[in-house]
Amino acid sequence: MDKSVLSCFSGAGGMDLGLEAAGFTSVGCIELEELPRNTLIKNRPEWPILEPHDVVAAGATLRPQDLDLEPRELTLLAGGPPCQPFSMAAQWQKPKPGTDDDRGKTVLGMLNLVDRFLPSAILIENVAGFLQGRNSAVELISHKLGQINDKHQTSYRLEHWILNAADYGVPQNRRRAIGIAFRDGAPAEGLARPAPSHSGNPVTAWDAISDLTIASVPRAEGGYADLLPSIPEGGNYLHLTARGGGPSVELFGYRTRYWSFLLKLRRDAPAWTLPASPGPSTGPFHWDNRPLAIEERLALQGFPSSWELAGSPRDAVRLVGNATPPPLAEAMGRYISTTLLSSEVPTAEQLRPTIAVRRKEAPPNPIPPVALPERWKARVYSRDAHPGAGAGPAGHPTEQNTRPS
After folding, report:
1. 274 is a domain residue
2. How many percent of the chain have pLDDT more than 90?
3. DSSP-derived 3-state class of residue 177
4. Mean pLDDT over residues 35-42, rounded?
5. d(CA 135, CA 111)
6. CA dihedral of residues 183, 186, 192, 195 (deg, nearest 10)
7. Which of 225, 290, 351, 362 is spaced 20 to 30 A from 27 at the CA atom?
């Protein structure tokens, strides 16, 4: 079976790389920003970079014949629309069907491509809030797919789940929304949740980064950098609170900081979620008490060591943090391929990514935390905990992965 994929919001290439491993051939990548486009060209010059670069414009003008295809010939349309409007931190009005709200235009641009190409399948990957909760895009997508079905006598129906990338060979706990729709419909009972290939036996941070060659090892910066050695591996600032289990110190009020504040990796577990725009105190940090190098960030997302990123180090952090983990994309590509070829439910082994990070020998024991630096000892005194579940120090809602303002 020849399998073709048209990629929207291609970014640093994580989705495309995983689908390539699943046997898909790229017929084009649509990406608005220059740095991600340069990254794709640097690593996969054979992947066509399409114009217009804007998915909204492409949805209005790009035709199957422009890619030497007929309608219904494309196997897969895949992409992850910009996530900011759907993140837990975003407060916005959900776009209603047919709206001109700017935050819904990119989603509609991708769906307009579905209308033109009528692919066998659609794959959407994004933050959890994209397909769940009051701000989700489910209503908008389902409404548009219904219009396409009425127009073309197709049977697209969005099925979606919240999956952890660590369950599919990615050495990182990263909850992602996955949406899939098939042109010829799904079983009446719906699609089965993709079987996790690594559930209960995840790849660890040690497996991914313990033996990497690092071109430039970053140093911890900011006013709290010298506290990192006083926090155990796998811990965060909570260790230095009244209830944190630390050495009877109380530098911070319990649960008054964002979760990733001074957060460190554990060698024997997957990494915490990598952010795209971390501040100087935003983890996860390496167990060696420093920020992660670009090579380590790539590895923790499941990219191969040969993958090169365009732009500055700050650009690279953003590109990696916004990327789809390639092993997760491969597993979803295998799910789609198997479902298109057979009515049987894909097994975990059928979905096992070939590009999943390989396991290594067990890591050494963690290094115990050290005593507080002298300059902090004078600041230890009683601190108030936050006022209640879901409220921060000022009574505002907080989330585990919310960055400070």
Report:
1. no
2. 77
3. strand
4. 98
5. 18
6. -30
7. 351
pLDDT at position 386 is 78
Render the burial of 254-290: b for 16+ CB within 10 Å, e for the rest.
bbbbbbbbbbbbbbbbbbbbbbeebeebbbbbbbebe
* Segment (H or E) for 317: helix 313-321
In this predicted structure, what is the pLDDT of residue 285? 98
Token readout for 18 is 């995983």
Neighbours of 134 (CB within 10 A): 6
Amino acid identity of 259? W
pLDDT (tens digit per residue) in 287-346: 999 999 999 999 999 999 999 999 999 999 999 999 999 999 999 999 999 999 987 899
* Residue reference for tokens 């007929």: 70
- Say if residue 96 is exposed, middle or buried (CB neighbours under 10 Å; 0-12, 13-18, 19+): exposed
Q: Higher pLDDT residue, 60 or 402?
A: 60
224-269 pLDDT, tens digit per residue, is 999 999 999 999 999 999 888 766 678 898 899 999 999 999 999 9
Rounded Cα–Cα distance for residues 325 and 303 (Å): 7
Helix residue spans in 169-309 (DSSP H): 205-209, 294-301
pTM score, whole prediction: 0.91
On the question of pLDDT at 398 being above 60, the answer is no
* Position 97 pLDDT exceeds 60: no
CATH of residue 118: 3.40.50.150
Q: Which residues pair with 285 in a beta bridge?
A: 264
Distance CA 127, CA 86 (A): 7
* 163 vs 179: CA distance, rounded Å: 10
**159 - beta bridge partners?**
180
Residue 131 located in a structural domain: yes
Residue 184, in any domain of the structure? yes
Which residue range forms the structural domain that includes residue 193? 4-201+324-351
Strand order of the β-sheet with 121-127 is 25-30, 4-8, 76-79, 121-127, 175-182, 159-164
How many separate domains does the chain show?
1
Our CA angle for 323, 340, 115, nearest 5°, is: 65
Q: Is residue 307 part of a domain?
A: no
List pLDDT tens digits, range 148-158: 999 999 999 99
